[in-house]
Design brief:
The chain is an alpha/beta fold. It is built from eight helices and seven strands, in the order H-H-H-E-H-E-H-E-H-E-H-E-H-E-E. It has a seven-stranded mixed β-sheet with strand order 3-2-1-4-5-7-6, with helices on both faces.
């Protein structure tokens, strides 16, 4: 097996990459900083800095008008996607924490996109199952509890329009996907990756972006 490009991402090269990507705006930057200041022990749940511009790019590329986010945390990814939506676009953000998402609400208001984001505080599976069953979702971003990923997938795929996109974060899960005896979240990600790769309804690619990012397009 040939690994191909073996570029090692050093801190300097990572900074170079960020410097050549669209920069975070003041609201995004402030939200990232507040997240690390207020929740240092769990701030790693925030989508990586380079994923904000990437998600916005994918929203524009797909022409998405309705996005569903499973797992919002403090709202950086929702902010990035909502800013890329047209004025009449909508993002449904699913989370269970009023505390974490309160920071997102503040940032969404500050950025002028709060009217595009509908935050639903409830278990995500309940929210997804309450949505219309027919295909109507343009794009979904999944970054929540890893043991439920297959369940989220199975609720989202039938509701995704043809050529719609699902973006799933943490699909390399710190390298633990290589451990055949993995348990808990790592086992959930392993099972999810196998499930996605075998799903004939979708075309999927797993990319080594941040902690692993899988892009899946409905056939």
């Amino acid at each position: 097996m040939s690994k191909g490009n073996s570029t090692k991402i050093t801190d300097e090269l990572y900074r170079y990459m960020l410097d050549h990507n669209p920069p975070l705006d003041a609201v995004q930057r402030g939200l990232v900083a507040r997240t690390y200041a207020k929740f240092p022990e769990v701030a790693g749940m925030q989508s990586a800095e380079e994923q904000g511009p990437l998600l916005a790019f994918l929203v524009r590329l797909t022409g998405a008008r309705l996005i569903v986010e499973v797992g919002t945390f403090t709202g950086f990814s929702a902010l990035s996607m909502a800013q890329a939506l047209p004025a009449d676009g909508r993002l449904i953000a699913c989370d269970v924490s009023e505390e974490w998402t309160a920071y997102g609400r503040e940032a969404w208001e500050e950025a002028g996109v709060a009217d595009r984001i509908e935050l639903r505080i409830a278990p995500a599976l309940e929210t997804l199952r309450a949505m219309p069953a027919e295909p109507h979702i343009d794009m979904a971003y999944v970054d929540a509890d890893k043991e439920s990923q297959i369940s989220y997938w199975e609720e989202l795929v039938p509701r995704l329009r043809p050529s719609g996109l699902i973006v799933t974060d943490n699909t390399l899960y710190h390298g633990t996907v290589l451990d055949e005896s993995a348990t808990g979240s790592a086992a959930g990600v392993r099972a999810f990756n196998d499930h996605v790769a075998a799903d004939p309804r979708m075309d999927s690619v797993l990319l080594a972006i941040s902690d692993g990012l899988t892009l899946s397009r409905k056939r």
